[in-house]
Write a structure and sequence with these properties.
alpha+beta; two-stranded antiparallel ribbon; 1 helix
């Protein structure tokens, strides 16, 4: 009779874990997360004095507000 109890205990524990519904628990906050379409751009050779520009497109894929501070080019 002891063997039957020992064998049933892991089975019952497994059923208990499977019955828990984790899909209803809220996801952990990930905060703001920036995703760029491209992270760099090569202008190639440019003449001194020529004006060049490029637009970087990005999206906030996180779940909080994205705030940009001290943005600088290199």
């Amino acid at each position: 009779m002891k063997k039957a109890r020992i064998l049933l205990l892991p089975f019952i524990f497994s059923l208990l874990l499977l019955s828990l519904d984790n899909s209803s628990t809220p996801a952990a906050n990930t905060g703001a997360k920036i995703k760029f379409e491209e992270e760099s751009y090569d202008f190639g050779e440019i003449k001194q004095g020529d004006r060049v520009s490029h637009t970087f497109i990005f999206t906030n894929t996180g779940d909080e507000v994205l705030i940009l501070k001290r943005v600088r080019g290199s």
